[in-house]
Amino acid sequence: MAPKAGDVEANLAQAEQLIGEVISRGAEWVLLPEMFTSAAAFHPDMAKAIRPLDRALAQLRRNTAHKGNAVVGGSFLAQDGDQVYDAFLLADPDGTTDRHDKDFPIYWETCY
Fold this sequence. Notes:
Shape: globular
Distance between the termini: 27 Å
Helix content: 25-40%
Number of helices: 3
CATH architecture: 4-Layer Sandwich
Largest sheet: 5 strands, mixed
Number of domains: 1
């Protein structure tokens, strides 16, 4: 996957297409790149790439259930209340999800 900086809709479409491809080839696990919805870059559109956590969870569950019997995971800029995290979500075929908010900043944040 080659995410476009700050272009969440294009990146989600690309991820969905790739998820479908690899599941059709028999993949049981699909792990998307770090910050797959936005890329990880200094870019003016990065603030617009933040997505509500509950909406992202629902979309990941729906995609996983729709695509087949696979575990799908990826990280993105997730808003939960008034906080924004680099959150990693993992969705199981039964629709359950697990979440991990990164404990340490990723490489871009460490510059500041």
